[in-house]
Amino acid sequence: MLLKFIAICRILVIGNRKEKQMNGAHKVGPKIVVIGGGTGLSVILRGIKRITDNLTAIVTVADDGGGSGVLREDLGMLPPGDIRSCISAMANEEDIMTEVLKYRFTEGRLEGQSFGNLLIAALNGIYGNFEEAVAKTSEILRIKGQVLPVTGSDVHLCAELENGAIVCGESRIPTEVIRQSSPIYRVYLKPDKPSATDMALQAIRKADLILIGPGSLFTSIIPNFLVDGISREVKASMARKILVCNMMTQPGETDRYSVWDHVARISEYLGDNMIEYVIANNKMVDAEALKPYKEDRAEQIIPNDRDRRLLREKGITLIENNFVDVQKGYIRHDADRIANISHGLICD
Fold it and tell me: In this structure, are 171 and 257 located in the same domain?
């Protein structure tokens, strides 16, 4: 069965490579780099891919929970979950392979595991290189642009809480913050300052616009800036730099955080005066949609006068509007509206 699976992967890679050669793919549009991880990043990518083919997603690889965590522990590979979500978001939405990639097994020994994770794992086994496995998966799905792991190193995310406790493991951090009733003081990687992938650094250097977030602040966004070279290249870049602020606080990470708090914490790792624009939602979400979030003690983030004053003092432009898109009970950003605003800032 495994040999058949690997053979199918090879056929798909070769077939898509030939199709690309026949089509002579020509990339058009501004060079946009999106940095982050998790569900928030994949949502934004679905909008951005409509305005450019020159799209690069730089994704954290500190995940150690769920199906990704199992593959990471069993196979010694980097976690594929966030990478797979971004590839799905950037793929041809009418392609049957996109649905196959999303498929999650519901029973047996593979229960909870997605086919996309297994595909990346198989290609990682074939080529012996995670970056190459991601690239081949992207070929199979014919994505617009490229998805890049921020580092090729096996890294683990740790947090120091305000009470001095140390918690290692991305999936354990929010749980321990809640259990110990102590907020995050700082996060760091083990090993310290792993090298960034060359392609990620090159993408940042060439970018016309850099979008940061949305996503889990301490476990999906900031880990990217702990990788050696990423913050440096973002600072040196002449690209427009935009933070897409989360619409909800995340229990165990950003309890009671405001728009400004998100900017301030990212600036601790990225550097001051780097973020030029902040996109934030200012529309109250329907009470029914908010109900499950409130049960988890998550709160909506709406810009307030303090946010506006502090952002103005730092020379950061706040772009606030209705960016809410509720889908199947989940509160998401309106990806198309954010894409249009981003494109307008590049043109401006």
Answer: no
Rounded Cα gap, residues 164 and 170, in angstroms: 17
Q: Which amino acid is at 308?
A: R
pLDDT tens-place string over residues 255-275: 999 999 999 999 999 999 999
176-235: pLDDT as tens digits:
999 999 999 999 999 999 999 999 999 999 999 999 999 999 999 999 999 999 999 999
Taking only the tens place, the pLDDT of each residue in 17-65 is 444 443 444 568 999 999 999 888 999 999 999 999 999 999 999 988 7
In a domain, 346, yes or no: yes
Q: Do 208 and 258 sit in the same domain of this protein?
A: yes
User: For residue 190, what are the β-bridge partners?
Assistant: 156
Query: Is residue 62 a contact partner of residue 154, using CB atoms and an 8 Å limit?
Result: no
Q: CA 29, 34, 35: angle at the middle one, nearest 5? A: 160
User: Which residues partner with 184 through β-bridges?
Assistant: 161
236: domain CATH number? 3.40.50.10680
Residue 156 and residue 69 in contact, taking contact as beta carbons nearer than 8 Å? no
Judge whether 200 and 58 are in contact, CB under 8 Å: yes
Q: Which two tokens stand for residue 161?
A: 């809480």
> Which residue from 120, 137, 147, 97 is spatially nearest to 17, judged by alpha carbons?
137
pTM as predicted: 0.89
DSSP code, position 251: T
3-state secondary structure at position 75 = helix
- Please tell me whether residues 160 and 121 are part of one structural domain: no
Range of the domain at 182: 156-190
CA distance 184 to 252: 8
